[in-house]
Amino acid sequence: MADSKFAAELQTHRAYLLRVAQLQLRDSALSEDVVQDTLVAALQGESGFSGKSSLKTWLTGILKHKIVDAIRQRARAPAFASLEEECRIDEFDALFDETGHWENPPADWGADPESELSQRQFFDVMQLCLENLPPNTARVFMMREVMELDADEICQELTITSNHLWVILYRARMALRECLERRWFASTAGAPAPSPAGARAA
């Protein structure tokens, strides 16, 4: 029987795991299932947790595999049919001139961005920015930057070319940077960042 103390400790990470799953899958019911599968797998594999990494890191690793399994079970072609269309979003293109450089360069993010990352409000704004990306673009970004999947694996899962992948990631990063500058970094010179009221609850 799994240790009750370990089981209770796992539950303290449920909200975080659910937040990651929802941002990736954009499906509340499926996200709940994936997180539950992750926690069950962790309970069954308790002996595999050596303590060399944090429990949160270990759980995130399990969650990554569960999310990939969920993506594989989906009908992939319909889900990603609009990827190329998402790559031609006018709002993204308007940020750059014909040479690919910023029309209006973002403000300096500061000498110590890690201090900003430590604030919960920043993550709330980041979530809002991610949710404002086109769904498939956000999914690709999460697979690469949050789940840390290899580029080849992402291309194989989504049946896209490597060039297509890098275009999607480039646009996603630029859109997120522009969004964060408007909603967060610009506010650090004055009033606190606005609450992301439009963000869905995790």
Low-confidence stretches: 87-93, 106-111, 191-202
Give the structural class: mainly alpha
Number of strands: 0
CATH architecture verdict of the largest domain: Up-down Bundle
What name does the CATH topology of the largest domain carry?
A: Butyryl-CoA Dehydrogenase, subunit A, domain 3
Which CATH class of the largest domain?
Mainly Alpha
Q: What would your notes on this structure say?
A:
The protein is an all-alpha fold. It has 2 domains: 4-73, Orthogonal Bundle (Rna Polymerase Sigma Factor, Chain: A); 76-189, Butyryl-CoA Dehydrogenase, subunit A, domain 3. The protein has helices at 4-11, 14-25, 28-44, 55-73, 76-79, 83-86, 90-93, 113-117, 120-132, 135-146, 151-158, 162-183. The protein is globular. Mean pLDDT is 73; it is low at 87-93, 106-111 and 191-202.
How are the secondary structure elements laid out?
Elements: H1 4-11, H2 14-25, H3 28-44, H4 55-73, H5 76-79, H6 83-86, H7 90-93, H8 113-117, H9 120-132, H10 135-146, H11 151-158, H12 162-183
Helix pairs in contact: 2-3, 2-4, 2-10, 3-4, 9-12, 10-12
